[in-house]
Amino acid sequence: MADLTVMTWNVQNLLPVGHEDGPDTDEQYQAKLAALAAVIDRAEPDVLALQEVGPEQVLADLNAACSVDFDSRLVGSPDDRGIRVALLSPRRLSNRTDTRSFPDGVLPVQARDLALDDPDTIENQAQTALAGRGVLSATVRSGGERVTVMTCHLKSKLLRYDRRPGVVGGRT
Asked: Against a cut of 0.85, is the pTM above it?
């Protein structure tokens, strides 16, 4: 059986200079790329799953900083901030799937504080059946076998919006 090394990493706002949540200077951007590349190069992954990446150019920049050549790169659909997930590999990635829908059998999940539901609607606005940041998957070959890898970026921070009853979706 062949080995397949998969590495996953939330690279926290891997965004270009000039993006609202990106670094202020090119020196800061290059330092972040170098720090990420040093860890990635030590692991030498066959597949690298990343969360919180910006436009495709940042993946090309990261690839240039790494000793491993990730010439197969896929990015997921962006959220409202332009944040995506990505899969990178020196091997060919195929059968790309990029979805926000939860699979059959997964019930809607709580997406916000129940106190934010508008009492005049039947729909429970605090629940969702869609992932806000999407799920990206692809197939890679290892030892003659096809292996499906996937990455997603689940919300993990504390709620950051106005929590007054009757105020729906208000972010602060």
From this structure: no
